[in-house]
Fold:
Amino acid sequence: MEVSSSAKLIRKASLGEFFDRIRKGGWRIVGPVRATSPVIRREPGETPVLWKEVQALDQLDLHATQTTLSPKELFFPAVETILKYRFTGQKVEIDPLESDPPQTVLFGMRPCDARSLCTLDAVFGWDYHDHFYESRRAATTIVSFVCTQPDDNCFCTSVGGGPGDTTGSDLLLTSVSESAYLVEVLSSKGEALVAAASELFTPATGADDKLSCLPSIGKEPDAAGISQKLPSLFSQEHIWREQSLRCLGCGTCAYVCPVCTCFDMQDEANLSSGKRLRCWDSCAFGLFTLHASGHNPRKTQAARWRQRVMHKFSYLPERLNVLGCVGCGRCSRACPADVNLKESLKQIVEIQG
Amino acid sequence: MATMIETAKELLQLGTVAVVVGYEKGSGTRRRALFLRAADQVDRLVLDERCAQNLAVYLSKAEVKELGRPAIVATVATLRSILQLASEKQFVEGQAVFIAIGQSGDARVLSKLSEIEEFVRSGSSVGGEKSDLEVGPTEIQALPRAQRWEFWQDELSKCIRCYACRASCPLCYCKECLVECNRPQWIPVGAHREGNLYWHVSRAMHLAGRCIGCGSCSEACPVGIPLYLLNAQVAESVSTQFGHVAGLKADATYPLSAFRPEDRESFIK
Structure:
């Protein structure tokens, strides 16, 4: 794995100073924070890790395998108001909301999530440009940390990624020794951050071997050919039924997924005014494709599960040239019924003929 | 003394049931639901303290119903859900049989509702002891009201309205949930403060006197909201005010829709 010539080093002991200088430079910092509750006694490793705005480095959990919810909520929130309106007599006045997000640094991304931004960019910009998404994207700098503790649910290497992948990051930090991070500066946004604290960085010596610091994530399943295989499996209903028998039809997998983007529009209004909200939605819900006529083209959970797999691994690659999965494993970790996507993909890959 | 596996095998081989709904090893240390139709695969079945998911939830899933008459490997929680479902006319005796493990470790097949009531009364079973219920409702109730409100605002702010709580609950069997009605939109769909509060309070109220406390909703929640606390508080209130506990009898009347002359009216001042 080639490390760019502009790579730098920063001492781990200086990370806190770098953090503070970013804030002093006017950026808002959002990062992974381990949830605690004054009342609920859960072991630290069992509590969720959520994206929160932070004021100090020590508020962050940079060692958690993964956040519970993906960072998509920073660009595409679970609920957002997209316009307001007012009735005055017969007239409707619409107030389309501007989107002017603050300059933000996401401090503590993982390479799989950074990669997910490429798919989100494709979906939110393929014909209509979603200015809510794109303005937040433009205002955000991604500082990622190479994974040190993947778990059995991770399968980034099967879908074109890896624990040290640079795609989508502005800065990528690898722990190369007990005392230092290798810092790959991957964009002008990354350069701007480094410039805010330039004396904390020294040039990388070339002796720092990033590759040897990467955890090993076996390519399992080998999902390379899956997009070609899927169309022929569409009508083999027993596959989809067996894989989804225990699925309860909630929205957890879609909501924790970094690249799921389906949404529902909802108006909250009274007789004189209202606002229009965009809310997350999931193709796993029974009513997702229910027509006003009463017909539902995806009446069974099996049909909805098939849709989920096809959308991610067949339709998105075919239409937008991006994969709809980065192998982060969140869907499998969070699923209340233990439907495991990595396992399901393995089964599909192993189907003969 | 028959084991669960021997019992399951016999039920399948004799054709008494078309499917055994039980637990098997899942991802990592997890357990997951198994819909076993082949008698020669019975060794996949497990039952231990990690088997906490309430399998009664699958009784209302169309694709599981299509498999045919089931035998369900049942923890006490599952059996109490069945009794509550029977009280609500959602379960008919004979629709399924249950493989329950007595305290001596022997597996019994329960088919009559009276047998299920008896088994639940005797309190004998294994399976599903690992529970997320670290904090009792009284600890929350002991907090001053303002602090309790803070606590819930904080917890509910994590809610993303995935409805894993609803999907994992055997008593949430409505074909169209209250929140899916949009004329009128009783409960705001958006995962904001107001919507989340309305949703969780509504669900807790709809489960008043019906929730049997399996904790599956809290286990299912991807962001770790201790939903069981809401349900436990409501259950305690129903118990105190109406003397009713859910899931003990197959023909219980529902206290919130049944009038008795002895019902307290102390709230009328």
